[in-house]
Amino acid sequence: MTMTAQIGITTSNSLRSLHNATTNSCANCGIAGDVSLKTCKSCMLVRYCNVTCQLNHWAKHKTVCKQRAAELRNMALFKDPPPKEDCPICFLPMRIDLICCVSLPPATISSVPIHDFAKTNAGLSNNDVELCYPCCGNSVCGGCIHSFHGSGTNLKCPFCNSDRGSKTDEEDNVDFMKQVEANDPGAIYVLGSSYYHGNRGVLRDREKAMELWKQAAELGSSRAHFQLGVHFEKGEDWKKAKLHYEVAAMAGHKLARYKLGYIDFLSGKKERASKHLKLASSAGVYRAMNNLLVVDFKQGLISRDEIDSILTAYNNSCAEMRSEARDAYILMKQETLISDLLLSALLR
């Protein structure tokens, strides 16, 4: 056992002893209490009979409190993420990355050598891979959207059967506002994105977008937390960016996990960065997997057995997110991207 691990065990034992000694009495005045004692919300170790006792005890308690609070946050941050959200139509995991479907056999990765792995198409990395219906706030993956177009049923909502074909952007936003007023975090996030990019019939308003994203984040939207993290990262407010990325990562947002690895790597915390990258890779994030292979593995920071295990988890995660419909959707997006590039070159 390493010295760091021994110190960690000793510290945890000491904190548990302190907890056992103070849970039945006020940590400041020592008066034994009952259910009316209030637990310190940061460390969950000590209890107080009132706010005055808590303030008076802070000078003695703050070192242990901050240490235990950091310990608890790390435990929450690096535990297994919650199950992925499924598309309500095909029941495959969301959110999906636009994996390059021509690099691997269709809809399967089981036959691919461990040295190879699914690659993200950089040109498609910012494309939407799901559609949120403003009438009811439900989201569908790109594969199902593609199937709807093929079957001719894309003009109706698959959930509430409302006619979407005759709706204007302004009418869509009226529907979104109904969801917003009902405090639906998904609809609030999408409306915020509309204001951020200036689409769906609204003018670009970054301040309004931030306001809506903050509202969605407070209601538990991991996607809103991620976008807030991106915003603060662009402004080089690393503390706020990291805070939002951590909340998103704990909720299962895999790109937020990759971002945390990137931030920790820049700040010299390579061990923490590697933990984040391993979790992101296992969830199917191409950039995280590529970083582990190109940097950590080549520099001997990760063993061959471990990289093989992570590659297997990465490929399996990608396989779970693929289907023939999704492959067809990605192929269509690739063809559109190539056509746009050719048209742009001709117009120069």
Characterise the protein shown here.
The chain is built from 13 helices and six strands. It is mostly helical and 348 residues long. It has two domains: 75 residues, no CATH class; 258 residues, Alpha Horseshoe (Serine Threonine Protein Phosphatase 5, Tetratricopeptide repeat), CATH 1.25.40. The strands form three sheets. The chain has a two-stranded antiparallel ribbon. A hairpin with a 7-residue loop joins strand 1 and strand 2. The N terminus is likely disordered.
Which key features would you list for this structure?
2 domains, two-stranded antiparallel sheet, 13 helices, Serine Threonine Protein Phosphatase 5, Tetratricopeptide repeat, 348 residues, mainly alpha
Taken as a percent bin, the fraction of beta residues is under 5%
Q: What's the average pLDDT?
A: 80
Query: Can you count the beta strands?
Result: 6
CA-atom Rg in angstroms:
24 Å
Overall morphology: globular
Distance between the termini: 64 Å
Just give the CATH class of the largest domain: Mainly Alpha
Instruction: Summarize the amount of helix as a percent range.
Output: 55-70%
Task: Please provide the ordered H/E string of secondary-structure elements.
Answer: HEEHEEEEHHHHHHHHHHH
